[in-house]
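Notes to self, UPF0302 protein B857_01243:
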Amino acid sequence: MLTYSVPLNDKKLFIRWFLKNFQLKRREGVWILNYLLSNDDLLKNVHFVDEAHYCPRSIVMSTIETTSIPFRFYKENIMTSDAEKAFHDLRINAHEAIYFQLNFPSVPPDPLYLAVLEENPYVPADIFISEKDRLAAERLLENSVLEFQEQQLLKEIDEALDSGNKERFFELSNLLQALKHTK
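result:
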């Protein structure tokens, strides 16, 4: 099992990308995601997972392109579609872990999404994927993250060249070489 803390910046990049590229079925979902962007203490406790309904405290939101439920908030044994209750709970319990499932068209999965997607620790063991599939998914994730980082570095190298920043160019080129050696 990968145990890894997703950096806040990765979460923010993903949320901004998601809000820019998709429309949620419920506008309150946009408010909630924007609230996450403005509250680092809360965002530290946010985990993006699949099958969030298994988690003790979770929110499931869907985009208009899906047939999934528009909005659900789960807390212990209670489920509601009242986004205001979810928002209120987020505000008063910002120190508690909260799991988000965003249903949106993600085939193939975007590297920004893969960078924040975590394994759901609450999914019952009998519905886990095989070890072979898990390892393949892990390799796909690692390769996707490396590919994304390489593309970002290439973009920044181009910008350094365009602006004539020789020092930045060499710094980024060294980072790119180091990244290629990790592949």
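- Residues 162 and 172 are 14 Å apart (CA to CA).
- The two ends are 21 Å apart (CA to CA).
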